[in-house]
Amino acid sequence: IICEKGLTNTSVGEITKACGVANGTFYTYFKRKEDVLFALSREIFQEILEKAQSHNGTFMERLVLFMMDFSGYIEKSGLKLCQEWVRNTVNPDLVENADDKNKLHMDIDSIRHLVEQGIERGELKTDTPVDVIAHTLIDVLYGEMLCWDMSGGAYSFEARTKEFCDTFLNAIITPYLNYRKDE
């Protein structure tokens, strides 16, 4: 319902009816309908990170998988939902739940974990600037997302992310790759 109508145009009553629960039950778990969106988002993005971390490919393959799944999930969720999320999170002072206030930091941490995992596996050099890479790649993803929102979905967010990965990601990561002599 939220993906079709947008969060603003969806009532708590419509959400509870679709879920088969009473309004009171809803308010036991959530203060407002925006909290549902944030809760679902946290769970999905944790799954995206876990999928990338457990992928058996190279560091670059895991990183691209994360970035593509990140943008792909947002695009599949729909432009209206993404615009609602941006509207409800762009000012962190208005976000009530501490977990939701830290979404940006959670996403930066996700990339940080992937980079640290690459170092631990010996795929990346120990002097890899973990924080700079994590911040930069989330800046790119969030920037792409905002531009996609502002364009009214005039192009594919996921395709734009693929274009970035294909064109620029190697240039960012290659200086930090560890190459084995047997390769």
Q: Care to give the gist of this entry?
A:
The chain is mainly alpha-helical. It contains 10 helices and no strands. It has a single domain, classed as Orthogonal Bundle (Tetracycline Repressor, domain 2), CATH 1.10.357.
Provide an overview of this structure.
The protein is mainly α. Helix content is 72%, strand content 0%. It has a single domain (33-176), classed as Tetracycline Repressor, domain 2. The protein is built from ten helices and no strands. α4 packs parallel to α8.
Q: What are the defining features of this structure?
A:
183 residues; Tetracycline Repressor, domain 2; mainly alpha
CATH homologous superfamily (4th level) name: Tetracycline Repressor, domain 2
Mean pLDDT, all residues: 89
Q: What is the CATH first-level class name?
A: Mainly Alpha
Q: How many helices does DSSP assign?
A: 10
Report the major sheet: none
Envelope shape? elongated
Helix share bin? over 70%
The proportion of residues in beta strands is: under 5%
The CATH architecture comes to Orthogonal Bundle
Structural class comes to mainly alpha
Low-confidence segments: none
Itemize the secondary structure elements and their pairings.
Layout: H1 2-5, H2 12-19, H3 23-29, H4 33-54, H5 59-77, H6 79-89, H7 98-101, H8 103-120, H9 130-150, H10 157-173
